[in-house]
Structure prediction request, 369 residues.
Amino acid sequence: MPTTMVPLHIIQLLPELNQGGVERGTVELSRELIKRGHQSTVISAGGTQATQIEKDGGRHITLDVCSKNPLTLLPRVAKLATELFKLDADILHPRSRVPAWLCHFANRKLKTPCVTTVHGFNSVNKYSEIMTKGERVIYGSAAIKKYVLKNYPVNEQNLRYVPRGIDTEHFNPTTVDQPFIDRFKHQHKLTGKTIITIVGRITEWKGHDTYIRALAEVQKTNPEVVGVVAGGIWHGKNDFFQGLEKLAADLGADIRFVGSQTQVREIYAQSDLVVSAASTKAETFGRTAAEALAMNTPVIASSHGGSLDIIIDGENGLFFEPGNDIELAAKINQALHIKFSNLRKHIENNFSLNRMTEDELAVYRELTS
Prediction:
């Protein structure tokens, strides 16, 4: 049940509010806090999602909590300290390293309780260690907990498991835009095909090359299979993207590169199978896997990182060795003949936005009770 105790004022801090999992999670948590009668403020250097905070009833304050320039550190700390004094919040929640360091210095006199979230497998050094210095440290997967305990002198009793939550009201198979799906399939010649999709920005560690090689192998015996690559090209990765296009052409793989999609819910809905192929770096949480399962679409994922918490191997998806295109091809062929179960229900029970919000609030209450 939603929390009904005394309202809190929570400040989340992150570098910018553009696209990304951390950014989306910040916006969603802000909205859910407001729904429950709490006060939500987000501090960032701005971005495309900053206005959404205000639309949802929260407050966004634009400050430079993004720059890594040490020469501007002191004036930025002073500005942040002044703002925090005026806001008089109950909880500070920095979600990235630069904001966490700025909070560390700006909060010395105020001593507002501080919660940090370790969102990823950052390089191990003193700079990254700040994310483990909150009075409570949130981690989103068993892999992150193991990483933190292995590399930093952290009191395990201060760690709290709060996986990211999926908005199951939005990612709902009964609310899809069917006309969009029909148009999309017609545009990309997908009608009557078995669609195997990879969703995510185009960058090396997402495993697109492994996916392409696997699809080329699968299509030798399953010509009805077609691949869909949905994701924008990450900064400076145009050459890598062109290399992926060439790889697909050289292998004769039937793949549609459809770019970034705003209606990703419909992309999941039209897919028969979604692949999460993170290779050299693990997914911290595995949002793509969770969103696809919420849409009743089974997932094949590389067997490391947050996906290990989300997918039940053999039940609602399958795992393959990271970077192993031969094994991925075999698992795709296997999946084409499996009737999967416990997809959406598993996400509703364990990885919903409602559950994430209540778990975050429970952490905040520990420090304010």
User: Anything to note?
Assistant: The first strand starts at residue 9 and ends at 13. The domain at 173-349 is CATH 3.40.50.2000 (Rossmann fold). The chain has 15 helices and 13 strands. The chain has a mean pLDDT of 95.
